[in-house]
Amino acid sequence: MTGTEAGAPRKRRADSRRNETALLEAAAAAFVASGVNAPVRDIAARAGVGVGTIYRHFPTRADLIVAVYRHQVEACAAAGPVLLAESATPHAALASWIHLFVDFLVTKHGLAEAMRSDDAAFQTLHAYFLDRLVPVCAELLDAASTAGEIIPDMDALVLMHGVGNLCIGADNPGYDARLMVGLVIAGLRLR
Amino acid sequence: MTGTEAGAPRKRRADSRRNETALLEAAAAAFVASGVNAPVRDIAARAGVGVGTIYRHFPTRADLIVAVYRHQVEACAAAGPVLLAESATPHAALASWIHLFVDFLVTKHGLAEAMRSDDAAFQTLHAYFLDRLVPVCAELLDAASTAGEIIPDMDALVLMHGVGNLCIGADNPGYDARLMVGLVIAGLRLR
DNA sequence: TTGGAAAACGGAACCATGTTCCGTATGTTT
DNA sequence: AAACATACGGAACATGGTTCCGTTTTCCAA
Question: Are residues A66 and A126 in contact, defined by beta-carbon separation less than 8 angstroms?
Fold first, then answer.
C-alpha cells in the first residue's frame, strides 16, 4: 500500500490549480475595474481561459466573490474582539467595527448590492458573510447593551443588513454612506 | 385658417390614448405580480400590445414607473406640510412623514432598488422622486433643526437616499426596514 | 518511456431580456 | 373617398448568463 488507506485520490491536476489562481487574480482585477458584476466572459478573457472553466471552478458568481474577498472578511471578523478589548467602551468598539465593515464594502463596487440580492445564486455570498460577521457583530452589540450603552435586543442580522444597504451606491457623489451609518450608530444609543 | 394660429396640432389618435392607459394598467398589475422589473414582454402581453408600443409611450422603464406611481408620490409630497402643521413637534412630523415614505417604498417590490440604480435609464425616476420629495423632506428637517430637536445641516438628499436604501429587501423575513429607519430618525435627535 | 484512463479545458450554442427598426394597419382630415 | 400622418406589431439584433460536449492535458502505472 501507499500508506494512505481509503483514498489516495489522485492529486489535483496542475493546470486546474493554475487556472484557479489565474481566475482569482483576473476576477479581482475585473472587480476593481468594473465592479463585482463584471461580465463572465471578461473575467475568463483576463484569465486566459474559457467560460466553462469559470463555472467549473466557481459554480456561481457568489462563490467567486467569496473566494476573492475571503481574506478581507476574515480580517474584519478578527478585528471585532480586538476592538472590543482595546476600545474605551463597547459602544466605541461597535462603532469602530462597523466603520471597518463599511470601509470594506464601499471600496468594492457593487458588492453591497450583490450582498442583498435575493437571487438564489447569491445565497452562498449571503451565507458566508452573515455566518462570519453576524456573530462578531452580535458579540459587540451584546457587550454594549450589557454595559447599558445601547438599546437592548438589537438584532445583529438586521443591523448588518441595514448597514450593508446603506453602503449601496456609496460612490454616488450626492450621497454619504458613512454619515448615514453614523446616524444609525447614534440611534442605537440609549439617551 | 382653422382658427388656432400657430398650432392646431391634430389631436392625439384614439388608439394611442387607449394603449397608453392599457399599458399603465398592465404595468401596475405586472409590478404588483413581479416587481418593477417585470419583463417588458410581459407587460406588453398583459396590455395586448407589441413591445414597440411600450417604448413609443414610455422610452425608458423609469418613465413607466413614474407614470404608474405618480399619484402616490404626489400624495406623499402633499402630506409633508399637513403633518408639519398637525404634529406635536417638527421631529414627530418628520418621523411620520418618513414612515409614510417607507410604507410606500416597501410595498413596491424592487422600487427601492430601482431608485438607486445608477443606470442611465433610471435617471428620470431618480430625478422625479428627488425633485418632488427632497424639498418636502428639507422643509421638515429645517423645521426640526430650527426647533433645536435634531442635528443641524442634515442634507435632505442624503437622508432620502439612505432611507431609500434601507428599504431595499424590506420583504426579506430576516430584515426590518422600519426598525432601521427608526434608528436613523433617533440618531438625528440631539441629545 | 509510454499507453491510456481520468480530469479539465474551450468555446460554440442556447436562453432570457432589453432595444431598435420598418413594413403594415389604423385613424384623421379634407 | 382619397391621401396623409400616426401608431402599431413583432421580427431582428445586442448583451450577458449558462450548459454541453468534442478535444486536450495531465497523471499514473506498467
Answer: no
